[in-house]
Each structure stands twice: as structure tokens, then as C-alpha cells.
Amino acid sequence: MSTSEKRYEDMTAEERVAYDKEEQARELVEQAQLPYRWRQTLQEVDVSIPVPKGTRGRDVEVVIKKKQIKVALKGQPALIEGELCKEVLVDDCTWTIDNQQEVNVHLEKSNQQTWWENVVTTAPKINTKKIQPENSKLEDLDPETRAMVEKMMFDQRQKAMGQPMSDEIRKQNIMESFKKQHPEMDFSKLEQNAPNSMSDDD
């Protein structure tokens, strides 16, 4: 059975890594083909739409409603138009033209605890479960939660590279420190049983 035919929960760790990389690549290609770029935090969505150099505000038609958006050069087909993924706070949404060659639309999310799968519902979806925590504002989190998120991010990167994770590194550091403090002791037997010799009190 190929990886694509397996359920994610039935995959091995190696198969999940390969599957995630493949899905990420596919997603990046789909997003790159859109006529705009977009990024999000839990609170907002920013959309950047390239336009011909020299474009001014009077040349652009921007309509933002609670669940709808349209951006077009006047008299031309829309650059982006359709039903928004989620509702927005219309009064807090804005748009500007950057260097007369890019329309930047700022959308304030109505529900600021959810990720969007796309800007408009007709566009390809991203996997919101795989969004990197960096995309949200880590500084908005309390210190304990932030430390937990950063540890998870570090462990995910280490695991993907086949490197020791934070708990293993911590145990190794404790052991190395103990060795330096007690050079007279013979640790060879202890090292043979290292995986079971130290319990994690967390």
C-alpha cells in the first residue's frame, strides 16, 4: 500500500515526514499560482496583489463586505473576487497601494481564534493543522505557553532531522555536567544502561 493510500494515523514516523513534505510542496505550488500572495495570523489576513506600475487609488475598485471581497482594476476582470473563508470586521479592514504597483488589503478576522484555509472559498486550501506557530504572534502568548510552543517547534525540527530532542539533550547535558563534577567515577556501566538510568520527572 502506498503512502497516499494510507490513513495518516496508520503511517510510520518516516512515512509521515515524507507525506508532509510532499503535501507542503504541493501546497506551495498551488499557492504560488494564485494572482496574489497572502499571509495570516490568528487575528488578521494580509493580501498583496501585484498591479501594473503606475496604478493609483482611483484606478482600483476594492469592495470588502462581511463575507465578500472584490479587488479589480476599473473596467477589467477582478484580480480577486468571491466569498471570504470566514467573516471579517469590515470597519477594521483597510487597503493601500504600495509603490503604485501592489494593492495591499488588510482583513481583520471576526473570529480571532481560527486559521483560514484560503482567502476566498474558490481558491486551493492550505492545511491549517500544519501552519507553523511562527505565523501567529508568539509574543502575544503567555511565557509558559510560548516556551511550550518553542519547545514543540524545536523538537519537530530535531525529529525531522533525526537529531536528539530537547528532553534527550537536557538529560545528556545533566550527565555531562555530572561527569565533570565527578571525574573519579566510572560511568561506563551507567552509560550502557543510560536509556533506563535516568527517569524524567516532568
Instruction: Write down the domain tally.
Output: 2
Uncertain stretches: 194-202
Ends distance: 39 Å
Question: Percent of residues in helical segments?
Answer: 25-40%
Order of helices and strands: HEEEEEEEHHHH
| Estimated share of beta-strand residues | 15-25%
* CATH class label of the largest domain: Mainly Beta
- Strands across the major sheet, in which order? 1-2-7-6
Give average pLDDT, whole number: 82
The CATH architecture of the largest domain is: Sandwich
Query: Rg, please?
Result: 24 Å
The rough form would be described as elongated
Secondary-structure-based class equals alpha+beta
Function: Required for nuclear movement. May interact between microtubules and nuclei and/or may be involved in the generation of force used to move nuclei during interphase.
Region (Disordered): 177-202
Pfam families: CS
Domain CS: 31-120
Explain this structure.
The chain is of the alpha+beta class. It has two domains: 9-130, Immunoglobulin-like, CATH 2.60.40.790; 139-181, no CATH class. Helix content is 31%, strand content 20%. The chain has five helices and seven strands. The chain has helices spanning 13-32, 143-160, 166-181, 188-192, 194-197; strands at residues 37-40, 44-50, 60-64, 68-73, 78-83, 94-98, 102-108. The chain has a four-stranded antiparallel sheet, with no helix packed on it. Strands 3-4-5 form a three-stranded antiparallel sheet, with no helix packed on it. The chain is elongated, with a radius of gyration of 24 Å. The two termini are 39 Å apart. Mean pLDDT is 82; it is low at 194-202.
